[in-house]
Amino acid sequence: MYHRHLKRQRCMRGPRHGEGFGHDHERGHWGRRGHRHGGGLRRMFDHGDLKFVVLALIAEQPRHGYEIIKEIEHRVGGAYAPSPGVIYPLLTMLEEMGLAQLSASEGAKKLYAITEQGQAELASNKANVDALFARIASARETFSSGRSPQIVRAMENLKVALRLRMERGPLTEAQLQDVAAAIDAAAQAIERS
Questions:
Q1: I need a surface site. Which of 80, 113, 121, 170 has the fewest CB within 10 A?
Q2: Which residues contact 21 (CB under 8 A, 6 or more apart)?
Q3: 56-75: per-residue pLDDT in tens?
């Protein structure tokens, strides 16, 4: 009974972690995989959507895989970043389908550009592509009106630094005072901002 319940939950969620739309650098924060929609968490991209996003980005200008990841993350306002384990195989697939081509290579970096066939694929799916980029813009607006990615990152850095320091062993009285003073100074600076 328990196993059937888990299987049903997996089926209702759609593809498993990393299938079709990519995991997100193990970020489990709100909005990292998508954005809140109707009270639930909605996936940023449905199966096959990322292909059109990548095609549109390399249609704008040839890009490396890493640049594509960062551009998607930027356009979504930090709410989502596809993993390299999804983007690089997707670029290879687009190349094999004749939709993208290797434009140049700098060592391990491969620069991808769109082909005429890729342009035709984008044109024939223009309504879908436009809807995808509207959803991306909406996610950016929703996420940026909430918590700033820079602040979330800084908060996580502080948590990690504290945890790592505490794991190294007990603090002396002077160290305790220094840590508390640093946290208090940060809190006061934030209050003044």
A1: 170
A2: 15, 43, 44, 45, 46, 47, 49, 50, 82, 86
A3: 999 999 999 999 999 988 88
